[in-house]
Batch of 4 targets.
Target 1
Amino acid sequence: MNPKKILLSALLLAAVALPAAAREAEPAPVFGLGMGLQYWHADDMDVCDKDAMGGANLIARYRPVPYLGIDCRLGCSGVWDGDKYRMDGKRYETDVVFLCVPVEFGLLGMLPAGDSFTFYAGPGVGYYWYDIDVKTTRKHHHHYHTEWNEHVKLADDIGWYAVAGADWRIVPCLSLFAEARYTGTGTHVRHEKSAEIDCSGFGGQIGILFNF
């Protein structure tokens, strides 16, 4: 074989192999900060005639070693419902907003799969703050109306969750992620013996994570 062709082939092989080797040698991100959009379906929740909530989460993730992650999450999910009706010749509008604000901490087992993908799963615990606001508006005519606001105090809850997902690092400093999760939590009206509002159920989330 021609020595020039051998040398050229070796140089081409090195040009392809060296960047790949560099990527493999690149360490996993130690810290990540991101945000995700969440869908939360609660099978037994019946608030605002709905059984699902939408919201967002802020996520801070620390990886002390490549195969372990520690998550801190702050989120807000909720559901809204409105109604219009007439009574005594006047028009009324009612808006009901149900909110859940969780602060969660979890442990993740991280499984790198090649240069760009990482699969993860793990459990966590959280403190879940609940709230219901009811606003009623009585409209007399186009430029005048009266409003009543009622704040229903709900009991907070200490719950848990389990999550499984995948992280795709598209560039060293930025990842896209998608995950499925189950959350176990519920609430009830404070100081009253009322039926529990069970918010336990499955959900999903997609978002971005900035790597440092």
Target 2
Amino acid sequence: MRSFRLFLGLAIIITSSQAVAANNPFNKSVVVTAGPDVTWRFGDQTATKSVQGRDGTWYHLYYDGLRMRLRLTNSTDDTQSMAKKFEEFAVNDVKIDGKRLKVFQWCLNNQDKHNRFLQQGLKVQKDICQNQGENGTLIIRMTKDATSALEHGNMIEFELKPFRTTVVVKFNISDFTAVNAEFNKQRAAKLAASKPKPAPVAAPKRVVAKPKPKPKCKHGPPDGYPGIKYIEFNCDDDAARNRAYSSIGKQVKEIDQQRKQAAAEAERKRKAEEAQRAKEEAERLAREEKLKQEQQALAASAAVQAELSSDITKKMLAVCQKQWDEGKHRCYCQKYIEHAPATIRANSNCK
């Protein structure tokens, strides 16, 4: 009996709140749409679309592969300093092509106190969703399902409620393939820039000896030293010969030392770049593992919610069956009318 009263009271409260909302003259909707003519603006592994509403408010949709953010500002700048401030900011729904995002439903189910809408000031487990109304911002961490929905969708829709007015903001995302293409292009450019380029080898300069009255001799470097010039001297001048040999030997020694230092520096840079690439790869694998664990947690939570919903349905059917057996129909049973006997009819007055 106590359970029956509890369910009856809950049904009355829900029905009353829905009736009040339906008759509320202030609950009007404003629709803002960013059509296919609004293109993405790219940064370093970031993409943003922006659209302005009739009241001058700008809506910025931001994506960086790990999270999706919607920010309301007073100007074209998508910055926190220009963000609008709200004391009451609610997010009723987030849909792609008319279907609610699974991750948003998870956030509702795992929000403190209630699961009717995403409310400013309430905590969501693991901060998967963050309603930062004080900064005019909604943040959703991406899951595999959410990313796939963006890649294959045509329109994403946010139903917001700042103060009393409901605002529906729509962004065309049929060109989302351009985002992934740009991100891949940036990553390829960074990888190509990180690879060392071989230094060009200068061709040996050709020395043309001019005829002299006296016989001339010349001394040059061994093979592999094209930058050292030949030194010419009189063949019968022993002092000039010694100076030429000494100068060439000194230049060869200096070049050997420079090459040794350059090789050591190149090896140091190669090892540093290799370590950096290994670090980035380890961080990427760690992010993927963390995302995998979060997705598993989301799936487990969804299963629990489905089981709870099934238990509530069974209990409500038991309560309603008693009413139907007596030939009565209550509005709290309207949701389950398909399970009622043929003699029981739906009540059009039930909202």
Target 3
Amino acid sequence: MEPRSSDITEAIHLIERQVATTGAKFAIVDEGCPDESSLMATRDGFLNLALAILRLVVLADEGRAEEDGPFTWDDGIKAVMHQLPSLRSVWLVGACLFPDHSSLMTEIQGMVGPDLAASLTADPAYKDPAS
């Protein structure tokens, strides 16, 4: 079965009905250890995060999202995120949606540097899940 935007839109409406606090947000919190962070939220904060991501998928499916090179981009996720004002916290600027695993991995490898990029290619955890 091929995914359809109408099915995702229906899922969005189902999830929206579950959200009691529409303004609930999530945060990415540095836990004090090097390179360790967690997503933290209430139930409604996580549902709003899911809604922001699903809305990006619908925009992309309908060709209404902003294109930025190899991916579709949207900053709607910032509306449901607490940005913590510290030097060590993560600043999320948007969400990038890639058309396939290959283009996703190409972008990640270009961002992480050659040593890590080479190890990603050999790591089974980064293998294309469709293969």
Target 4
Amino acid sequence: MDIKEIYSNVLLISIANGRNYYKHVREAEEETETYLADYKRHSANMYDDLPEGYSGLYFMESLARKVGSSIGEVCLLTKARKEEIILSLLKNINPIENAYCDYYDDSIEGQVEFKGMAQVFDLTDVNRVRQLFNTEESPDKIDISSFEVPYSVTCQRIIENKNAESIVSYTLYITPADNLLTRYTFDNYAVWTGNNGPIADYIDKVIDAHEKLQGIDTETPAGNGAADIYSIILLDAYRRRIICYEE
């Protein structure tokens, strides 16, 4: 297994469990550095060095635990579960324009890349949640944004002509926060690649929606606004998942 896949798995589990990945990465990193410093300080002699890669293993065990998981789940996350988590995150991108609110680039022939924002809610701090719901302030003064964990989602579609056949490939990246790159982590995660399926359909529908809203397709029926197109995306993805399970 590629080490990058393990990292993308723990990120997806963090999203599924509604955890603040950025915060837990910092905590796990500090915990790892503290452990290594203590070990070195109390090491009896020069032959007590830890095995190569142990620091990374310690970090991952700490991070997995903090996001409500385990090393076993992180290593054995199934393809179906990954897609389920990703589709759940994509449902939070509403309206559909948020899927390309950062940028949309189709300047390279055969390639489209766009980037938008999604978020989950971190409600794991029970005391903070209680304070929120027990407050006497009016609802419009409650800072819900303090519970939001933002994610930047980048999608790519590349069409290549090989042997007179068009090969379409899709990739979806998730970035948990700006400048997260540290000694122990990456700052950008390729969480899914493929040629078809619900996630590929989502990318296609966003591209279609962007083109229609730009007036490229003049045959868009009246009433098919952004919200309607977004609903179609989710419905198609849901239907495809049912078909897959029935087969």
